[in-house]
Design goal:
alpha/beta; D-tyrosyl-trna(Tyr) Deacylase, Chain: A; six-stranded mixed β-sheet; two-stranded antiparallel ribbon; about 25% helix
C-alpha cells in the first residue's frame, strides 16, 4: 500500500462538480492499494498516518501528529500511485489491486483511522474526482506499507 501524504490547511474532493468531502487543517492522503496488500497493511498504514509527526510544536519543529493537533484527514483512493513507467512513456498499472479488493482495503484503512479518533473524509472509490488542497509548508511525505518497519 502506498500513500502520498500532504500537510494541508484545507482540502476537498468533488465528483461531478459537487464537493463530497472537505476538511480544514490536517492531512490529505492519496492511497494506492497494491496486489498482495493485506488487511494488516491497511491497519499499519492507518497507524503510521495517525502518528506521523509532521506538524510543528511550540519550538517550530515537526514533532506533532494529526492526532496531537486535532486535525482531520481526507483520504482519496488512487490506483495510479502503483503506475510503472520504467522503459516506457505510458504507465502500466498491473501492480494495482483489483477494484473490489482495493476498495475493501481502502475502507479498512479509513475505518481504522476513525477508530483511532480521527475525523476522516473520503473520496468516492472508482469515481473521476477533482481534488483541491492548500499544502502547508509545503510538507509532502511518501509512505509504503512494505517499508514502514
Amino acid at each position: 500500500m502506498r500513500s502520498v501524504v500532504q500537510r494541508v490547511l484545507k482540502a476537498s474532493v468533488a465528483v461531478d462538480e459537487e464537493v463530497i468531502s472537505a476538511i480544514g487543517p490536517g492531512l490529505m492522503v492519496l492511497l494506492g492499494v497494491e496486489q498482495g496488500d493485506s488487511e494488516q497493511d491497511a491497519r499499519s498504514m492507518a497507524d503510521k498516518l495517525s502518528k506521523l509527526r509532521i506538524f510543528q510544536d511550540e519550538q517550530g519543529k515537526m514533532n506533532r501528529s494529526v492526532l496531537d493537533v486535532g486535525g482531520a484527514m481526507l483520504v482519496v483512493s488512487q490506483f495510479t500511485l502503483l503506475g510503472d513507467a520504467r522503459g516506457q512513456n505510458r504507465p502500466g498499472f498491473t501492480r494495482a489491486e483489483a477494484p473490489d479488493r482495493a476498495n475493501m482495503l481502502y475502507e479498512i484503512c479509513c475505518q481504522r483511522l476513525r477508530d483511532l479518533g480521527l475525523q476522516v473524509g473520503q473520496g468516492r472509490f472508482g469515481a473521476h474526482m477533482q481534488v483541491e488542497l492548500v499544502n502547508d509548508g509545503p510538507v509532502t511525505i511518501l509512505l509504503d506499507s512494505h517499508k514502514l518497519f
